[in-house]
Structure formats: C-alpha cells, structure tokens
Amino acid sequence: MSNGFAKCPKCEYGYNPPHVRTCEHCGASLRRRDAPILIILLGLTVLGMVGMGTFFMRGQQGSIDPRQRSVTRPAGNGEIKPSVNSVQSGMPIVGGGQLKDAGVQIYRQYIDVPSVPKGVFNYGGSTTFATLRSPTVLKTIEAAFPQFKLRYTEPPAGKVGSSKGIEMLIEGQLSFAQSSRGLKAQELAKAKLKGYTLEEIPVAIDGIALYVNPQVINGRLKGLTLTQVSDIFTCKVRNWKDFGGPDLKIIPITRDRHAGGTADFFFEHILQKRSFGATVRDVRDTTEGIRTVANTSGAISYATASEVINQKTILPLGIAREKGQDFIRPCGDTTCSTVNARAFADASYPITRRLFIVIKRDRKLDEQAGIAYANLMLSDEGQASVRQAGFIPLR
Question: Quick one: which of 26, 110, 70, 2 has its CA closest to 385?
C-alpha cells in the first residue's frame, strides 16, 4: 500500500490514507512499514526473547480466520480449478490469483461472508441468471444480511441482456452486473476512460440448448451437429428435410446479439462470427423466443438450458460436435425436467460456457457490493443455489 501502510494482511485490498489503522474493505488491522529505527531496534531485542511465543500466537490467530471455516478450500496456490472446458476457448478465464486480488474468497455459508455492505444495490444484466434471481434465493441472502438489499433493474428502454447490463454498470446505473459472456476490450476501455476497471468473476457453468417447434421432430431427425446449427442460423440451409426432418421451412429465431450475452456467445463460438442470416427473426428475450417457437411451424431457437427444461410447448434437440458422433441432449431425464448436469460438467455436451459477476473496481461501495455478491455465490451455500437454479457449480 501507499502512504507507509503495509498490504492488508487479511484481504490484500485497496489503499488507505495516512493515520488509518484498519482496512477500508474488510476492517482488518493494518501494520505500518515505516516505523522509526529506534523502535525497530528495541523491537528486535524484545523479539529475541519472545519470538517463539509470538510465532505461536500468530499461528493460533490464523486458525480462527473466518475463511478457514470453508469446507472446500482452493487447491495449491489458491486457484479455483475449472470444472469443464468451455467451448468458448477464446474467453478470458479468471484464475484463483485474480479472484484473490478481487477480494473473493470461499466460505461455507452466506453468514460467513464478511464485509457485506449496507444499502440498496441495483443489479441486472443477463437473462440467463433469471433463476438465480428467484425470490427463494433472494430471501435466503436477505435472511443472512437484512441490510444488503438487492434490486433487479432492467434498462429504461431497449432490450435486456449481458451487454446492456455491462453498459448500465459502466454508466453507473448498476452496482454490479450478471453476464453470460466474458468482458470485451471495448467495455474495458470505456470503463478505463471513466477512471476504473471492470473485472469478471466466474460463478457457474451453463449449457445452451437448441429447441424447436414439436412439428419439426419426426422419427428420422435425432438431432443436429454444430455445423448444421451454424448452417441454419446463417440461412445456408432453409428446409428441415435437408437434415432428415419433415418437408418444412426452417424459421430460425434469435435474440439481438448486441444486447444478449447468449446470442453474442452463439455468434462468436457457434457461427464463428459469421452473420446471422437475413431471414432470422429477432425477439426481445427468452420468454418471447419460447412463445414464438411454440406457435410457429418449423421454428428453432436457443437459450440457456435451465430456461428450456420443463417447457411443454417446445422440444429440445440433441447436439453433436461432429457428424457420426452421438447426439447429447441438454435434458437430464426423459421428461426434460432437469438439465443434463453430468454432460455439462464433463463437457461431453458440445455447448457450455461460464457465467460471470462483473464488478466495478472503483474502491467504493459498488465494488464492495459486487465482491460481496460474488463471495455469496461462490460459498458452499451459494453453489448449492447455483445447482438448484439449473446450473453447474463452478467448484
């Protein structure tokens, strides 16, 4: 740290002005590194007599650090090992060192998470996170921290999604954002111009499901390869009969990739940055997409698997990476009432990605709120909520 203060021994966070003896982020005591030489000499004499006692006492203090209450600790140097390899290979992955630098640790229960601020905090962004914004999850967090009020906030105009949420975060309309894709260079640059940085914290793994109008499914159509999916959404192929399906016009439906993280991911990693075809229809959100596919003969769309399961008016498709490989369904059972957690976790399902909390590194209350929320989601209790919401825990 600056101004003669050593780094915070607990969270290694922030800078503090002169004469402040506690960390502004976690409240831990700070130690000066510019003590007068005379004090240092006297201290060395004393240490010669009580050094071993001091060492023992410090070891005992470390044993009651709240972070030690976590059931699952990071391996080795503190890195959180990813559970799967995402198809989004070009996406920057946040390692354990970066999590530590951001003040993110691993705790057992919500109540164990320190430095949860007081106030009302706007958050929003990715529609993929809808199940993690459920009243059940929010009430559990509120029960642990009544002073930490989370308020989901949609944009005043336009379409919802990861990109819009990050934009609102940069403009100061949100305290932190939820994103189904990694940060882009232009977003980092915009934040830098405003005097702060953005950081992405991964909290879950998700699978993207392709789903169709029930009329598309017949005895011969078992699923699609990634190449066939790309051919559909670039409008290279326009009839289901070309894939062994019925003689039915293909109606591809997508969300705006400039607003939604899922659509942007789909554009970059499934279409390989080839443009959506001219006849692809655009919808505002997943709810409208499911409704449109259900009511449109020959329609197909995609969404996070947790939003597709338990839908009775549409049918999810199996996906294969290449021709000749088995089609893997996004559903975990024959009735599609659960996600295919095993296939998402071991990456046998072809389309998986990570979900992020995007925090504003401004050394102010917004950053504290974002770090607290990331800590909550990465705690054992938070990762249980991740699983219940239809995602795969990161740890």
Answer: 110
- Quickly tell me which residue has 């109540």 as its tokens: 111
Choose among 371, 354, 351: nearest CA to 363: 371
Q: In a structure prediction context, what are the per-residue pLDDT tens digits for the chain, which is 395 residues long?
A: 333 334 555 555 443 344 444 454 455 555 444 444 434 444 444 444 444 344 333 333 332 232 323 323 233 323 333 333 333 332 333 333 445 555 567 899 999 999 999 999 999 999 999 999 999 999 999 999 999 999 999 998 778 899 999 999 999 999 999 999 999 999 999 999 999 999 999 999 999 999 999 999 987 898 999 999 999 999 999 999 999 999 999 999 999 888 788 999 999 999 999 999 999 999 988 999 999 999 999 999 999 999 999 899 999 999 999 999 999 999 999 999 999 999 999 999 999 999 999 999 999 999 999 999 999 999 999 999 999 999 999 87
Bridge partners (DSSP) listed for residue 255: 283
Kindly state the tokens that stand for 339: 């996600």
Q: Residue 227 burial by CB count (10 A; 0-12/13-18/19+): exposed, middle or buried? A: middle
Instruction: Give the residue among 196, 165, 330 at the shortest CA–CA distance from 261.
Output: 165
Whole-model pTM: value is 0.71
Could you tell me if 358 and 183 are in contact, meaning their C-beta atoms sit under 8 angstroms apart?
A: yes
What string of H, E and C letters represents the secondary structure of the chain? CCCCECCCCCCCCCCCCCCCCECCCCCCECCECCCCHHHHHHHHHHHHHHHHHHHHHHHHHHCCCHHHHCCCCCECCCECCCCCCCCCCCCCCCCHHHHHHCCCCCCCCHHHCCCCCCEEEEEEECHHHHHHHCHHHHHHHHHHCCCEEEEECCCCCCCCCHHHHHHHHHCCCCCEEEECCCCCHHHHHHHHHCCCEEEEEEEEEEEEEEEECHHHCCCCCCEEEHHHHHHHHCCCCCEHHHHCCCCCECEEEEECCCCCHHHHHHHHHCCCCCCCCCCCEEECCHHHHHHHHHCCCCEEEEEEHHHHCCCCCCEECEEECCCCCCCECCECCCCCCCECHHHHHCCCCCCEEEEEEEEEECCCHHHHHHHHHHHHHHCHHHHHHHHHCCCEECC
